[in-house]
Amino acid sequence: MRVVRVTAFDARAARGKPAACHRMGQLEKDRFRLVAYTTLGHRIDPRIPLSIAWMTLMGLLIVFLLLTPLTSIRLNPYDRLDQIFDHLQVPRENVPKHYEINLKVFLPYRPGVDYGKRNFTFDGFVKIIFRCETPNRKILLHSARQLGFRVQLFDDLGKEISLQDHYHNHSQELLHIQPADLLTAGVDYTLHINYTGGFDNGNFTGIYSAPYRHETEKRWMLATHLQSMDARTLFPCFDIPDAKAKFKATVEHPFGTNAVSNTIETLVVNNGNWTITAFKETPLMSTYLFALCVSDFPYTETHTLKGVRVRVYTEPSKVNDTGTALDIVPRLLDFYEDYFQYEYPLMKLGELI
Ligand SMILES: *[C@@H]1O[C@H](CO)[C@@H](O)[C@H](O)[C@H]1NC(C)=O
Ligand SMILES: *[C@@H]1O[C@H](CO)[C@@H](O)[C@H](O)[C@H]1NC(C)=O
Ligand SMILES: *[C@@H]1O[C@H](CO)[C@@H](O)[C@H](O)[C@H]1NC(C)=O
Ligand SMILES: *[C@@H]1O[C@H](CO)[C@@H](O)[C@H](O)[C@H]1NC(C)=O
Ligand SMILES: *[C@@H]1O[C@H](CO)[C@@H](O)[C@H](O)[C@H]1NC(C)=O
Ligand SMILES: *[C@@H]1O[C@H](CO)[C@@H](O)[C@H](O)[C@H]1NC(C)=O
């Protein structure tokens, strides 16, 4: 016996009695029994020929099938951008492949380090390679808490393509870029965007600064929490989880601090009052997984059996308390690699405690 749930069926037709509430029907040999309750709670039990029940179900199904394509087809992917639900997404006409991110962070990490008006701001430059999937004349990128955009677009031969306009809409958190000509499907284009941003924000979202106390001093670190859609505070991007790409970051940070990101450092050079740290390209991943931390935290270090570098960073006064983490983290990583039969894809693992 199969139980079929029927909604919005008017039992009055069968019995001439007012009926409401939920109704459950049971499919018997050749009859469809509708168990219904009147608004007063009396049970009514009309018997309806099976053919009528089937016709009703088929009717509902046809109505459903007819309505579905009408509501899901969107001829113009931009026509509903003024609605909040739609600008959380961006049209998939352009699909990112690679991001190269350069940041210079003005972090007054300890007393005596002062960048004046530039305190807690950063200069950003991002190079985005994306593929045009459908010919279009509008590139939409997520971007928040950023200003001073300078945008250039190049085709796959490196020829600059002139732009008709570009503007940022704060309430939409979108950077609109309008090339003068139609982009061609199947071509990889490159965007160069210079911008500035800020991280004077104590609410632990996106890119933020967090204070900590060292002896009598108030010191600052920079950190990121980009889940679920705050990568846009760090760099303009297609900030949707399935628009995965590879990321290659370089960070210029105050001398005396270190920078930690998803992948291992490929270069650390000092240049006067600044240090430049470059990171290896990440595997293919979502924007929200990108991470960056700049602080003067010292670290302790060890390696897993397979040679993954494990570092535990912490405040200077707590560096002797990292023993437990340093002992457990590599053993856990070895255990999980074996348990899931899946090799950890990175060369290092950093813990900030
Ligand atoms: C930004 O977008 C909102 C919502 O779509 C719109 O109402 C507003 O006019 C736009 N502002 C600018 C400056 O374009
Ligand atoms: C910049 O930040 C540092 C550290 O918080 C502070 O000592 C300094 O006064 C700030 N400078 C300005 C101009 O606000
Ligand atoms: C944009 O950023 C790049 C990389 O930092 C830099 O070389 C270039 O001079 C910047 N362009 C402008 C106009 O600021
Ligand atoms: C966090 O701080 C930023 C910058 O000050 C602000 O734009 C944003 O609205 C804040 N977010 C929340 C959830 O308070
Ligand atoms: C480095 O910083 C110190 C103190 O903040 C300043 O006196 C000096 O001029 C800076 N050096 C360079 C090369 O900017
Ligand atoms: C950590 O331990 C070393 C060796 O015992 C000691 O010299 C050092 O002062 C300790 N550091 C802190 C911050 O406690």
UniProtKB/TrEMBL annotation:
GO cellular component: cytoplasm; extracellular space; membrane
Keywords per UniProt: Membrane, Transmembrane, Transmembrane helix
GO BP, one annotated term: peptide catabolic process
Molecular-function GO term, any one: metalloaminopeptidase activity
UniProt keyword annotation of Membrane present: yes
SUPFAM superfamilies for the chain: Leukotriene A4 hydrolase N-terminal domain, Metalloproteases ('zincins'), catalytic domain
Transmembrane segments: 52-70
Domain Aminopeptidase N-like N-terminal span(s) in chain numbering: 95-289
Keyword Transmembrane helix applies: yes
Entries under InterPro entries matching the protein: Aminopeptidase_N-like_N, Aminopeptidase_N-like_N_sf, Peptidase_M1, Peptidase_M1_aminopeptidases
PANTHER family: AMINOPEPTIDASE, PROTEASE M1 ZINC METALLOPROTEASE
Name listed for the protein in its UniProt record: Aminopeptidase N-like N-terminal domain-containing protein
High-level lineage: Eukaryota, Metazoa, Ecdysozoa, Nematoda, Chromadorea
